[in-house]
Design brief:
Blueprint (H helix, E strand, L loop, with lengths): L4 H14 L2 H6 L2 H21 L20 E2 L2 E2 L3 E8 L1 H5 L3 H11 L2 E8 L3 H7 L9 H9 L5 E9 L1 H9 L12 H5 L8 E3 L3 H11 L21
Antiparallel strand pairs: 1-2, 3-5, 3-6, 4-5
Helix pairs in contact: 1-3
Length: 231
């Protein structure tokens, strides 16, 4: 059974506003104890009146928070996945092992890898945002020429999309910092040896383009405690 809290609180407030300080001073100790108890009850009911009450006088609970959206790129801001590809020039130059080593030494987990000569359709979809550029056709021909395969990979870990781009370095190798992959191994934009997803959205698209769900593997590091623990 519920009290009519709002009406009671208003009545109680009016009663208190008509009392003067002299009344409280003249009151007996037992009367003062009664007043203190009344104030406590009135305050509690007034606070209850501020709560939202449903049509059936039942207090409504907060709606549960929606679960984070998981895509092919994992959970944004959580454990993410990124698409990394060693281009034909990187494969020809024998740099695949060193590139893999850099991601492994950083602490990221390789969850998919394959050597592939992409079709023109796949290359065109992958570089769709560059379709209006004059070098688009040459780029597609270079990726699909078959002189060396593309080594396509998916790497997993905390902040891996952003950190992967840092490991790779600037698109123009002449602006890439020493210590990055492009800063150490490249001098020309047209031969910058590696691609990495530049956002969560592009990682979602690119992983789905290059890999089927059955080609990306969930597995656990045996040494995860020494790589991913917070303390």
């Amino acid at each position: 059974m519920f009290f009519r809290a709002p009406a009671f609180a208003r009545q109680f407030s009016r009663q208190l506003s008509t009392r003067s300080a002299a009344v409280f001073q003249a009151a007996s100790p037992s009367k003062l104890r009664w007043l203190a108890a009344t104030v406590c009850v009135g305050g509690a009911l007034a606070g209850a009146a501020a709560l939202q009450v449903g049509p059936s006088n039942a207090i409504m609970a907060d709606a549960p928070k929606a679960a984070p959206t998981k895509t092919a790129a994992g959970v944004k801001g959580g454990i993410e996945r990124t698409f990394i590809a060693v281009k034909p020039d990187g494969t020809q130059r024998g740099l695949v092992g060193d590139i893999i080593s850099r991601f492994e030494r950083k602490g990221y987990k390789l969850v998919a890898i394959k050597a592939i000569v992409p079709s023109a359709k796949l290359a065109e979809e992958h570089y769709e945002d560059l379709k209006s550029r004059p070098f688009f056709k040459g780029l597609v021909d270079y990726m699909t020429g078959g002189k060396a395969p593309v080594i396509a990979m998916v790497w997993e870990g905390k902040d891996v999309i952003r950190q992967g781009r840092r490991l790779i370095g600037a698109t123009n190798p002449l602006e890439a910092a020493p210590g990055t992959i492009r800063g150490d191994y490249c001098i020309m934009v047209g031969r910058n040896i590696i691609h990495g997803s530049d956002s969560f959205e592009s990682a979602t698209k690119e992983i789905s383009l290059w890999f089927g769900k059955s080609e990306v593997y969930d597995w656990e590091f045996a040494n995860a405690e020494w790589v991913t623990a917070d303390n």
